Amino acid sequence: MNWISTNIRFPEDQYRKLKIKAAKERKSLARIIREATAKNIDVEKKARKRKIKDVDKFMREVEQLGREISKEVGKDFDSVKALREIRYSE
Fold it and tell me: CA angle at residue 49 from 33 to 56, to 5 degrees?
């Protein structure tokens, strides 16, 4: 694994809290920051996957509703025309 060094600035109170956490856990400050960063990245990845699943689920529900509505209104129903009428009517 290649390592890259960087310089990060923290507010003094946050830096103190990180140093205390590192001391309590008997870890280096760098390790505490790496672990927190990795955890944050994992949370973001999971959130992204969850959003995609939510969108897929929503689209399936919309598709199902569309089928149900088309059964009720018949095949001659023009949904685009109906939406335009709703949007532009006053």
Answer: 165
Give the global pTM. Answer: 0.48
Instruction: Give the count of beta carbons closer than 10 Å to the beta carbon of residue 27.
Output: 14
Both tokens of 12, joined, read 């003094």
Structure token digits, residue 71: 């059964």
Are 32 and 25 in contact by the 8 Å Cβ rule? The answer is yes
Residues 35-54 pLDDT 10s: 988 888 877 777 777 677 77
Domain definitions of the chain by residue range: 12-88
Query: Alpha-carbon torsion 20, 24, 28, 34, what sign?
Result: negative
